[in-house]
């Protein structure tokens, strides 16, 4: 049995994403925890080493704030680029956290949000392929469809990590710890 833990503010944690079949998908080597509660984890990283399931490695190009919530089947990466803030939203299981890492199951679907507020649902073909290959249960399919709608509402209403104040506060806090 894995003991859940709340990451301490200021600590460094890995982020590990898995696929539905339990295989590792991607690992971010280090994220600075800016806030940890029993429901939310907010972290920041910049120039972080990322390792893919096939062993390929790359380094993130810009500072980012990551947002995880226990009650929602998505997580959000807010990336700070010269022309504005971009968001990459992963449809995923709610996160789990232990002493090793923040962990979640990546369910393929993503939403990319541009600085002008426009957004696109991505990777529907990958989702269909993996849903068949890994036998996603009907319940997961229904949850994810509902969560895509929920996430789109958050984006359109500038809720949670999409709120301008969220970005200002957490970007400032991340800059002050690094």
Task: Describe what you observe in this structure.
- It catalyses: a ribonucleoside 5'-triphosphate + H2O = a ribonucleoside 5'-diphosphate + phosphate + H(+); a ribonucleoside 5'-diphosphate + H2O = a ribonucleoside 5'-phosphate + phosphate + H(+).
- Its EC number is 3.6.1.15, 3.6.1.6.
- Belongs to the Ntdp family.
- Keywords: Hydrolase, Magnesium, Metal-binding.
- Mg(2+) 1 binds at residues 90, 106, 110.
- The protein has 178 residues and is of the alpha+beta class.
- It has one domain: FomD barrel-like fold.
- Helix content is 24%, strand content 42%.
- It contains 3 helices and 11 strands.
- It has helices at 124-133, 138-156, 164-177; strands at residues 12-18, 24-36, 40-45, 49-52, 57-59, 64-69, 74-81, 84-92, 96-97, 101-113, 119-122.
- Strands 1-2-3-6-7-8-10 form a 7-stranded mixed barrel.
- The longest helix is centred in the last third of the chain and has 19 residues, at 138-156.
Strand order of the largest sheet: 1-2-3-6-7-8-10
The CATH architecture classification is Beta Barrel
The total count of strands amounts to 11
Structural class: alpha+beta
Catalytic activity: a ribonucleoside 5'-triphosphate + H2O = a ribonucleoside 5'-diphosphate + phosphate + H(+); a ribonucleoside 5'-diphosphate + H2O = a ribonucleoside 5'-phosphate + phosphate + H(+)
Cofactor: Mg(2+)
Function: Has nucleoside phosphatase activity towards nucleoside triphosphates and nucleoside diphosphates.
InterPro entries: DUF402 (IPR007295), FomD-like_sf (IPR035930), Ntdp-like (IPR050212), SA1684 (IPR016882)
